[in-house]
Amino acid sequence: MRDILDELAAVHRVMGTGTVPAGEAYTVELRRRYDAEIEDVWDAITSADRLGRWLRPVTGDLRLGGKYDLEGMGHGEILRCEPPRLLKVSWLFGPDADAWDGTSEVEVRLAPGPTGDTEFELIHAAVVDPHYFPTFGPGAGGVGWDQGLLALARLLAGKEGEEGDQLHEFSRRSAAAWGRAHLAAGGDPEHVAAAVAATTSFYVPEDPVSR
């Protein structure tokens, strides 16, 4: 458990504001260091084979201007690709997503560290959904990205699939961490507490047998 919680603590989380083509947006930002060369991290976030091992299986034209599809997660277009430092894509999810083109974008920035490691930053900017965001807050997407960056750390370290039952506790603590980021951004404490509870229930549903 200590190892997986160390991975949780390795991430700096910020809720902020930004813009996307559809207008003003909120952002979830995750920053951390990976003990891997920048070329290795770049390959892990752009290679179809390796993306499928830490995120979801991906298909499509994986080059600048191409369109991609992440199985069960979303689809979009590759907007910027500057190896090995910057990748930016539109990120659309759900049956009506194409009608909301321009409402969500993900940008990943990499920088070489001083000891052969890599500084990693991910920013997901999305127009506020008037129904979804008030219920779940930034943790809705933030916990999912925490899980993804944990799986990426495992891949880079050659320890794929070692999360096991610890992932539930990881997700609970991730939801709480995003609650703290929400408070730091000026969120109302009562709203934040309710959003953390809703996000936790979504990612770690109560076992009906234990009721």
From TrEMBL:
It comes from the Bacteria. Residues 35-127 form the Activator of Hsp90 ATPase homologue 1/2-like C-terminal domain. Belongs to the AHA1 family. This is Activator of HSP90 ATPase.
